[in-house]
Fold:
Amino acid sequence: MDGLPDWDRCAVMGVVNVTPDSFSDGGRWFDTGTAVKHGLDLVAQGADLVDVGGESTRPGAARVSEDEELRRVLPVVRGLAGEGVVVSVDTMRASVAARALEAGAVLVNDVSGGLADPAMVPVVAEAGVPFVVMHWRGQSIDMNNRAVYTDVVGEVISELAGSIHRAVDGGIDPARVLLDPGLGFAKRAEHDLALVAALARMRAELDRPLLVAASRKRFLGRVLADDKATAPPPARERDAATAAVSALASREGAWAVRVHEVRASADAVRVARAVESAADALPDTLGRQGKTPEDPDSAEAQR
Ligand code: PMM
Structure:
């Protein structure tokens, strides 16, 4: 991705939520010092970049004020960037994105894909930084009411295509647009699973790098609960399931996974990369590595 280091595998984006109320880690990294230390710990555990956010987007969450979001995010971005960390800012506000970029962030992650704030696309275009466009159907306060689809994969692809258009029309270099299916945002568990199953199609049809953010989300709780009568495990007991999605996403060619617990996903993407290299080296009857000696058309067989 233009403007970022070149990772030769799926990257791992560690999450630092400077919020009192995020669904899985709200309140844990709420003061600047703790948040910066946590970001550095995530890098030590294998994160390639760190996503800093100051506003919870869990279902039902109300917005925080701009001043409060700035107060939470800026010192943490500054602290991490000052230590050489590749920082992205998770915000729907253009003003917060602009100030975070000044403070050292190098990527803007907007869960609304530019829809929440009309000033966002111009700010990102002017800064010339990579922009994550997530599939989004409206603010978290009532997003669950919008989890209605007849063909979730087709609709998410076409709505994301609309967001790409708006971003590019607004001056953002298409080479700097990243896409995210928005797992858990106006989606039920079956929608999230269908989207994870369709990552390759999404990549093929939209032809942009994908960020996959399954970390600790409800659909994983639902899968682990096994049946509807069993309570899902709490968010912090969904990290192994998250790492499983990281391996799958990596195998489907995702650009990055966004996770709260980094170590397991850092291992997962490295294993997926090693398997991919091994697959590339296999003689392949379809001819990916040239024809095998047994192939009647091969030079060997014709001798
Ligand atoms: N999910 C959350 C926050 N930011 N950003 C992107 N690009 N994709 C997501 O799915 C996403 C996000 C939800 O809250 P969390 O920070 O606790 O994961």
